[in-house]
């Protein structure tokens, strides 16, 4: 694993001499520290207190992502979230979603009604308990397409690139992922976690197409906006 030592020390340096940090300042410091250690796509920090609705303290989402990962989550799906139940048990430590989720996670109500919409391949939570009964969970999130691109695809080569575009036309959502400049890919013969995420929860008018070109993976998904908002 490559560690950005300079970035890590710079993040730690911001903590020296400070007795308290505002939520945003703490979140930014945590993001910089983690960025120096591991690869991730998003960070979100929630505070869980008993049966109350979780409070979002910090996140790296844009406006549209915030709707799915925070606003929609707070409406009710959090009640089915393994992270929520672990926080209520006041367990401290670092846990992967796969460790806490039930054996049949992909067929669970939480997965089918909410988690599939996030497109996440991996989620790791840092659970910190406080003296007032609150558990703060700092989550690192990673998408499957990005994971595979780094391990096997275009982003595993110095000159590799990934082009990601999306649009909404005539009430249809379209997302395209195209890799360039990577090693010649070998088509996968099995469907992994991310592949199931990309195909489950889509209605009959939706389409998922995946192909391997000379430069890497080319992926396209189209679906009615109504399917994604359901």
Which CATH architecture of the largest domain is right? 2-Layer Sandwich
Query: Helix tally?
Result: 9
Helix/strand/pairing category? alpha+beta
The outline comes out as globular
Low-confidence stretches: 1-19, 192-201
Question: What's this entry about, in short?
Answer:
This protein is α+β, with helices and mostly antiparallel strands and 230 residues long. The protein has helices at 5-13, 23-35, 63-75, 82-88, 97-100, 109-118, 144-151, 193-199, 225-229; strands at 42-49, 55-59, 93-96, 120-129, 134-143, 161-169, 172-180, 207-212, 217-224.
Description:
With 230 residues, the chain is α+β, with helices and mostly antiparallel strands. It folds into three domains: 1-38; 39-143, Transcription factor LuxR-like, autoinducer-binding domain (Beta-Lactamase, 2-Layer Sandwich), CATH 3.30.450.80; 152-229, Heat Shock Protein 90 (2-Layer Sandwich). It contains nine helices and nine strands. Strands 2-1-5-4-3 form a five-stranded antiparallel β-sheet, sandwiched between helices. A four-stranded antiparallel β-sheet has the order 6-7-9-8. The radius of gyration is 19 Å and the shape is globular.
List keywords for this structure.
disordered N terminus, Beta-Lactamase, five-stranded antiparallel β-sheet, 3 domains, 30% strand, alpha+beta, Heat Shock Protein 90, four-stranded antiparallel β-sheet, 9 strands, 230 residues
Topology:
Blueprint: H1 5-13, H2 23-35, E1 42-49, E2 55-59, H3 63-75, H4 82-88, E3 93-96, H5 97-100, H6 109-118, E4 120-129, E5 134-143, H7 144-151, E6 161-169, E7 172-180, H8 193-199, E8 207-212, E9 217-224, H9 225-229
Antiparallel strand pairs: 1-2, 1-5, 3-4, 4-5, 6-7, 7-9, 8-9
């Amino acid at each position: 694993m490559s560690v950005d030592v300079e970035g890590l020390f710079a993040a730690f340096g911001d903590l020296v001499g400070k007795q308290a940090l505002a939520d945003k300042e703490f979140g930014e410091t945590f993001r910089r520290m983690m960025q120096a250690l591991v690869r991730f796509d998003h960070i979100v920090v929630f505070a869980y207190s008993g049966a109350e609705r979780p409070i979002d303290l910090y996140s790296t989402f844009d406006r549209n992502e915030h709707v799915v990962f925070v606003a929609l989550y707070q409406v009710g799906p959090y009640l089915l979230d393994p992270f929520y139940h672990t926080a209520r048990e006041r367990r401290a430590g670092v846990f992967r979603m796969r460790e806490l989720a039930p054996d049949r996670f992909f067929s669970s109500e939480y997965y089918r009604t909410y988690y599939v919409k996030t497109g996440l391949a991996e989620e790791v939570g840092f659970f910190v308990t406080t003296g007032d009964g609150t558990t703060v969970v700092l989550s690192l999130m990673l998408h499957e397409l990005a994971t595979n691109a780094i391990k096997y695809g275009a982003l595993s080569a110095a000159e590799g690139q990934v082009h990601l575009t999306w649009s909404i036309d005539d009430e249809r959502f379209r997302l395209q992922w195209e890799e360039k400049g990577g090693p010649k890919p070998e088509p996968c013969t099995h469907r992994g976690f991310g592949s199931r995420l990309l195909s489950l929860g889509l209605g009959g008018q939706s389409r998922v197409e995946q192909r391997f070109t000379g430069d890497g993976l080319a992926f396209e998904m189209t679906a009615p906006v109504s399917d994604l908002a359901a």
